[in-house]
Each structure stands twice: as structure tokens, then as C-alpha cells.
Design a protein that fits this description.
By secondary structure, the protein is α+β, with helices and mostly antiparallel strands. It contains 17 helices and 12 strands. A hairpin with a 2-residue loop joins strand 4 and strand 5.
Length: 410
């Protein structure tokens, strides 16, 4: 363990018991919650990286998220807790560009690596809802709008050249970017200890990862991820980092993107593609369980998200900072590039979840024989996206073909 990581461990790690005292010490939080009125503190952290506490009081609730100096699910893996600073910075920028589509942020404690955000306990994680066959209509549209508003508002189009350069410089997030570069674009394509492959899928993985066309496309996708500083993207926009709430009498539906600690200036298509890749995983689960109707509906979310993104970005285009040379032809060229990046990112994000580190419940909770079939379908779909996806006219036709690939018909 490095000296830097050892030094970072000196800060207090919060517990259920110490959270009330922590709130009492933070003026910004005391104004929201009276520590004397706290009725319950719940540890709800179930992700890979952080501690998460829901604080309930008679006067209102909030959530505390603390970054540890190691990966929560693997304490032998040191990682900088500075990621919460990036999360706070991104939440503020995204909240400004796309209000109501990310949690509100109340406080950021750089010394103890804690952010305090809005409690969204009346929402649920979208991954779990999709896996149960539930349909939160409009969520994909909301996320398309979210990506578009963030893409425009934090890009050179929305900020202008000087402010964009300053924002890029302030948002460099090398350690978490390296995690994505390794886990998404590299490790699934080499022999690595993180890769866990069922014997029955060994040939499927070898055929996928060994295909020269796949390897070239993944290499180009990794290069785009590392070099296309287009906007302050979410950086990890999968269905497990989206909260949804259905419409009910007297309560509007709601969609929020959260866990933005991987945010950095990267290719806009990576966020769209991350959603697409997770739609593939959810559809693969449904298809393997014999629910073809739900699988078809889930795959249709790809076109819904893209249509919303394209429409929203186009609507924002007249407000671009420098229209002198950024005409409508540039808009179409930019959107075409986003589409190509999204296709490749979707494939990479789907494939890494069935080959490499950090699996998902969509696939892992299936019985093994069914899981084998689902993984085989995901890899067929990923190859299709990488090799032919960018040349397919739009996500509607493309994801029809993805459905065939999941069913073994391609």
C-alpha cells in the first residue's frame, strides 16, 4: 500500500453510530437536519465502492456518501477517496445543466470525503426493476434528455472555448478513468485474474475476444474514451446508477442518475452506450427466462433514449456559443460521431459484465445452465454492435438485430 493511500486513511470512517455527531459538526447539514431529531440512520451501501447512509429525522431526510481509500468490495485494492470531490463537482455541473435529473447536493466535505445529497428512498434502482419485468415508462426518455443537456451544457457548444478548456482542466479524473480503461476496454480481451468464465462459455469468450474485427473496434473505442474530451460525461451510466419512481396519483414519475464519481471530460456517446449495453444485459436475462415480450420492450429503450437525446440536443443547438462555423452540418456530424461511439461503448459495457470484474444481477442470478445461454447471447450481440453497428441505420433497426443475436438467430 502506498504512502499516499496510508495518509488518506487518517480520516474518520463513518458508522451508523457516528453519523449524528458528524451532522452536528457540519453547519450546512445542521441547517437541514436537527441532530437531536434524527430517528434512524441506515447503512444502505450495496455498490462496489463507497459507504452510503440514509439519515432519517422528524424534520426531513438526507443521504451521506463517503468514499473509502479502498474498493469496498475488495479492501486489498487501494483507490483514492478524492473521487467524491469529482462527484460533488459533477453533481453541481449536471444539476445546473439538467435540473431534476440528478440528486440535489447539500454539502461536500473534502477532508473526510463525504458528500451529502437528496434522499431518494422513494425511488428504486432501475436494474432491479427491469430484472423483475417492471416497466417505468419514460425513464429512457428522461435519460436521453439528461445526457443531451449535460452534453450541450458542459461542452464547447454550451460553454464557449475558454470556459470549456478551464472545465476540462478542472475535471481530470485519472485514477477512475484508468479503472474504466482497464475493466471495460482491456481486461476482457486478455488473460486476467479478474475474468471469471464459465467452462461452457470458454469458447464463446475466445471467439469474441479473439476476433480481429472486435479487437480493432475495442481499441478504437478505448482511444476515443481516452482522447475525446467532449463534455463532462457521467462516466458510469448503467441501469444500476439510475433511480426510478413510477407515476402515482398526486406524484409525478421521476428518473435520477446518481453515482457520478467516474465523471470526466470524455465522449458523449459513452454515456448513451453504457445505457445501451445494460439494456442488452436486461434483455438477455428476459430472453433466457422465456419472456420475449419484456426483452423486446427493453431493447426498444435504446431507440427511445437515442431519439430523446437527439431531439433535446437539436433543440439546444440554436443556443450554441459560436455559430459562426458551427452550422447545422456540424450538428449532424457531431451526432453521427456520438452514435458511433455509443454503439462501441454499448458492446464494451455489455461484454465486460459477462467476462470481467463486477458482474451484474441481470446475469449472475440466473441458474447456471440459463446463464450460459444468456452470456452466449450477450457476446453475439456485442460482436454485432462492434463489427456492424455503426453502419446500421439507427438504433431501431440495430436493436432489432440485437434481439435476433440474443435469440441465436444472427
Amino acid at each position: 500500500m502506498t504512502a499516499a493511500v496510508e495518509a488518506e486513511q487518517a480520516y474518520e470512517i463513518l458508522t451508523v453510530e457516528t453519523v449524528p455527531r458528524y451532522i452536528a459538526e457540519r453547519p450546512a447539514l445542521r441547517g437541514l437536519i436537527d441532530p437531536a431529531q434524527i430517528t434512524r440512520v441506515r447503512d444502505v451501501g450495496d455498490g462496489n465502492m463507497n459507504l452510503v447512509f440514509v439519515v432519517e429525522s422528524s424534520g426531513g431526510n438526507l443521504v451521506l456518501k463517503q468514499a473509502l481509500p479502498w474498493v469496498r468490495i475488495d479492501p486489498t485494492w487501494p483507490i483514492t477517496p478524492e473521487r467524491n470531490r469529482f462527484e460533488a463537482q459533477a453533481l453541481r455541473a449536471h444539476g445546473s445543466a439538467a435540473p431534476g435529473l440528478v440528486p440535489a447536493i447539500y454539502d461536500a466535505d473534502d477532508a473526510r470525503h463525504v458528500v451529502a445529497i437528496e434522499d431518494l428512498s422513494d425511488h428504486r434502482v432501475w436494474r432491479g426493476a427491469l430484472n423483475e419485468g417492471l416497466r417505468h415508462e419514460g425513464a429512457a426518455t428522461d435519460l436521453g434528455h439528461y445526457v443531451a443537456r449535460v452534453a450541450f451544457g458542459t461542452s464547447v457548444f454550451g460553454l464557449g472555448a475558454e470556459a470549456h478548456k478551464a472545465a476540462v482542466a478542472a475535471s481530470v479524473n485519472p485514477e477512475l478513468c484508468e479503472i474504466t480503461e482497464d475493466l471495460v476496454f482491456t481486461e476482457p480481451y486478455i488473460r486476467h485474474e479478474h475474468n471469471k468464465i464459465l467452462p461452457a462459455n470458454a469458447q464463446d469468450v475466445a471467439d469474441y475476444a479473439g476476433d480481429p474485427r472486435v479487437r480493432t473496434a475495442i481499441g478504437m473505442a478505448k482511444l476515443a474514451f481516452m482522447t475525446h474530451a467532449e463534455a463532462l460525461i457521467h462516466g458510469d451510466l448503467h441501469t444500476g446508477s439510475v433511480l426510478v419512481r413510477a407515476e402515482e396519483p398526486g406524484r409525478a414519475r421521476s428518473t435520477r442518475a446518481f453515482d457520478v464519481e467516474f465523471a470526466f471530460y470524455g465522449p458523449v456517446g459513452f454515456d448513451i452506450g453504457a445505457l445501451w449495453g445494460n439494456f442488452v444485459l436486461a434483455a438477455a436475462r428476459a430472453r433466457a427466462l422465456g419472456d420475449d415480450e419484456h426483452a423486446t420492450w427493453v431493447l426498444g429503450l435504446a431507440e427511445e433514449a437515442w431519439a430523446a437525446f437527439r431531439a433535446e440536443f437539436t433543440a439546444l443547438w440554436p443556443g450554441r456559443a459560436d455559430p459562426r462555423v458551427y452550422g447545422d452540418g456540424v450538428l449532424e456530424g457531431f451526432l453521427s460521431g456520438v452514435y458511433g461511439d455509443a454503439v462501441a461503448a454499448g458492446a464494451a459495457k455489455a461484454a465486460r459484465r459477462v467476462i470481467g470484474f463486477s458482474r451484474v444481477a441481470d446475469i449472475e442470478t440466473l441458474p447456471e445452465d440459463v446463464r450460459v445461454t444468456a452470456i452466449r447471447g450477450v457476446l453475439r450481440a456485442a460482436r454485432l454492435l462492434l463489427v456492424e453497428g455503426a453502419a446500421t441505420e439507427g438504433p431501431g433497426a440495430l436493436f432489432d438485430r440485437v434481439g435476433d443475436a440474443l435469440a441465436g438467430e444472427s
